[in-house]
Design goal:
Structural class: alpha/beta
Largest sheet: 7 strands, mixed
CATH architecture of the largest domain: 3-Layer(aba) Sandwich
Strand order of the largest sheet: 2-10-9-8-5-3-4
Number of helices: 13
Oligomer: single chain
Number of domains: 2
Strand content: 15-25%
Bound molecules: pyridoxal-5'-phosphate
Length: 397
């Protein structure tokens, strides 16, 4: 394949664009990670992560991808045979459930159509029926990256309290954190699971857990085997620093310090508003395409459509993978594919992280160009609809 000129537009839902300031922060020699200079960096990262996660709980960081933070959450609070109520959201609840089973947990899936948001009332009903208190934890993916649906974590937290049930609430914030509001303490979340490569705009490689007092208490009696991720070993150590079960990934911390500074400089509310604006522009473009028997929004609950990723359903008879393959090979825009049962049926437009209006418009214009070029039916005016909306919303900002 000949070289494609210009920058690739990275519109997959993670990893996301890494801002130059973050790249430059990593462009420095390694340092001794057992020195006060490094501890200060760690402490700043941890304290700023607390601001982003809106928690006074304990924040722990590992050298891992998001899968590591999933594993940390389950092994630190559960014992073999414990029951986890997994809210079905899509591919990521499915694979998180598989991981729980691999650790000998009993997984009860709260079945839910992938194109709809979880109804917190159903969580409450199930917990009320669990009079023996066998459910140890309720697990939910805040933003299901495979479907582009956001799930009501505040509502689920309230449902657990309303049921008067002792279950812990574990939330995967991997594709929501720093892109949409997440309020760990206010919403009653016991464990938040996060990763570095999406809203935090960092390279892949850091897993993050935040744990409430109740979760830390559960760790003391949880019997699942764990070592690398054992919170008792890695939570705040001497000098208020974090501990690692191994060499600290110092360059990723240089990146994280800068990334968190960027987020706080922009202001979290502005970051969320920007994501909401770019997501709405994307949805308006897709709705216009859909009017001509073209691609449509996969999600059916309008109010729960994600501000970090939009899943777009291809019209029947057209393969989403063939479509996005050409979008990439001919026009250098990377789109996400459909996962699991959505493979070939949807493509996903990631609009999270370090992204602005020209970048999303470039992506949407290229998708429209390729719909035309590949002879896929679609309504006209998708990009116009996005521009119309952005023109109005920018004026109001
Ligand atoms: N959970 C969600 C919601 C995700 O989007 C992903 C990855 O995209 C994961 C978990 C797994 O994270 P990782 O790929 O970093 O291990």
């Amino acid at each position: 394949m000949s070289r494609l000129a210009g920058r690739q537009f990275l519109n997959i839902p993670g990893p996301t664009n890494i801002p130059d300031r973050i790249l430059q922060a990593m462009h420095r020699p390694a340092l001794d990670f057992m020195t006060p200079e490094f501890w200060e960096i760690q402490v700043e990262c941890r304290d700023n992560l607390k601001k982003v996660m809106k928690t006074d709980g304990e924040v722990m960081i590992y050298a891992s991808s998001g899968h590591g933070s999933w594993e940390a959450a389950m092994t630190n609070i559960c014992s073999p045979g414990d029951t986890v109520l997994m809210c079905e959201t899509g591919r990521f609840s499915e694979s998180w459930a598989d991981m729980c089973k691999a650790f000998g947990l009993t997984v009860e899936v709260l079945a839910n159509p992938w194109d709809r948001a979880t109804d917190p009332n159903r969580v409450e009903e199930r917990l009320r029926a669990d009079t023996a208190g066998t459910i140890k934890a309720v697990a939910v993916v805040h933003n299901e990256t495979s479907t582009g649906m956001t799930h009501d974590v505040a509502g689920i937290g309230a449902a657990i309290r309303a049921a008067g049930h002792p279950a812990l609430l574990i939330v995967d914030t991997i594709s929501s954190l720093a892109s949409m509001d997440f309020r760990m303490d206010e919403w009653g979340v016991d464990v938040a699971v996060a990763g570095s490569q999406k809203g935090l705009m960092l390279p892949v490689g850091l897993g993050i857990s935040a744990a409430s007092e109740k979760a830390l208490e559960a760790t003391r009696t949880a019997k699942l085997p764990r070592k690398y991720y054992d919170w008792n070993e890695i939570k705040t150590g001497d000098h208020g620093r974090l501990r690692f079960a191994g060499t600290a990934p110092s360059h990723l911390f240089f990146a994280m310090r800068e990334g968190l500074r960027l987020l706080l400089e922009e202001g979290l509310d502005n970051v969320f508003a920007r994501h909401a604006r770019l997501a709405e522009a994307t949805r308006r473009a897709v709705r216009a395409w859909g009017r001509g028997n073209g691609p449509t929004l996969f999600g059916k609950d309008e109010a729960a459509l994600s501000n970090s990723v939009t899943a777009v359903q291809m019209p029947a008879g057209f393969d989403a993978n063939a479509f996005r393959g050409k979008v990439l090979s001919e026009t250098n825009v990377a789109l996400g594919g459909g996962l699991s049962r959505l493979n070939g049926k949807v493509f996903r437009i990631g609009h999270l992280g370090d992204l602005n209006e020209p970048m999303i418009l470039g992506c949407l214009a290229t998708v429209e160009l390729q719909l035309k070029r590949q002879g896929i039916p679609h309504g006209a005016g998708g990009v116009d609809a996005a521009i119309e909306y952005l023109a109005g919303s920018l004026a109001a900002s």
